[in-house]
Amino acid sequence: MKAVLFDLDGIITDTAGYHFLAWKTLAEKLGIEIDKEFNEQLKGVSRTDSLELILKKGQLKNEFTLAEKEALAASKNEEYKQMIEQMSSADILPGIESLLVDLKNDHRLLGLASASQNGPVILKKLGLYDLFDTIVNPAELSAGKPDPEIFQKAAEQLGCSVSECVGIEDAAAGVESINRANIVSIAVGDKEVLSAADKVVIATNELTADLIKRIWTECHE
Ligand code: G16
Ligand code: MG
Q: The complex's ipTM?
């Protein structure tokens, strides 16, 4: 195992709550109501695709031009950026900082495979930016998760083959993306929702360098 590829939201930090509040503000302005249950569909989904899902929910899918949709997505992002402004290392999910340090000390490469264009800013706020060897720019992808492209690209940017990597995700679409890239997948969350993963743990503090290496080895035996 040469590299570990991380999702951001739900694995390194919990930005889902901020995304939800920012989308809710926008949706309300459009007369659309969204709740936490609907928000589950937006996890791991790109900004543009999230807006499409919200407009579809309000039956407003064909009511806006491309330019108007871009303006709506930009206004959500402005609100979101204000919310993440106060993030700090206190917002790192349990066990993640020591995991990243352990993996680095063990000479493993670390990659970020997040759909978020705010990924680099958030890693800097958390004080984790320097630990990462590469960050995929989601704006350069032709397709988002569940397409395998983002995880394939992360491996490629690190100079690794997919068989040398493990991918870590909290969303079903993300696990599908890892699996379709032929990368060993570890998921954090609900065992039923994430059953497609090679291994599911309940919380981030269960992720250790030893566990990740063991799962990779088992999958390559
Ligand atoms: C995250 C979130 C999604 C969000 C997406 C794009 O994905 O889970 O809800 O829509 O990033 O974020 P932004 O608007 O900041 O570009 P991930 O892949 O980190 O779980
Ligand atoms: Mg996620």
A: 0.92
